[in-house]
Fold this protein.
Amino acid sequence: MVPDNGCHGGEAFNAFKYMNENEVTDETCAIYRARGRDNGEKCSQQLICDNCAPGDKGCWAQDNYKIYHTNSYGHVSGEKAMMQEIYNRGPIACGVVANNLLNYTGGIFDDKTNWTPADIDHDISVVGYGVGEDGTKFWTVRNSWGSAWGEDGFFRVVRGVNNIQIEHDCAWATPVDTWTNDFRHKLTETEKKDLRIGNADDVQMKKE
């Protein structure tokens, strides 16, 4: 398994594996910070899920928050296997070379650059596939650059030729249903003391 390197790169497979072995929450509870790998910031219960009051009243670890898991995960690559995975279990995460996508505005993207797997620098979600009016096969892809980019935040790219390395390194996962019965994490006494932001004496514990 390829190790992750913080903001310098990582693998979707590793994220799915982590979610299989640990609880995770969502961005309403733990916003993306892009910190820790290089600056030495350590994770804490408050970083896992916190809330903040307006003004200078401080932040506190949440005592009751939603959790999510995966119950299975794996690698997938190649056009046929990817199509089968999407058909059976839904979207998959794939690494791509994003260099020439920056100026994409619409249509079926066909990059003629001879990229290699070592050039992969971005992960996206392949959500479907189809065939254009001219017979061109394509992947339908959800990106993370906002709805103003591309086709309302999505793009299409030629399918079956590993364009931008999209068919080389993908991963799939299936979620555990933690929402029907609203499974949540309740803080232990040890976790309540795991406060590494600011002065612990100024941090209040509150319950939702």
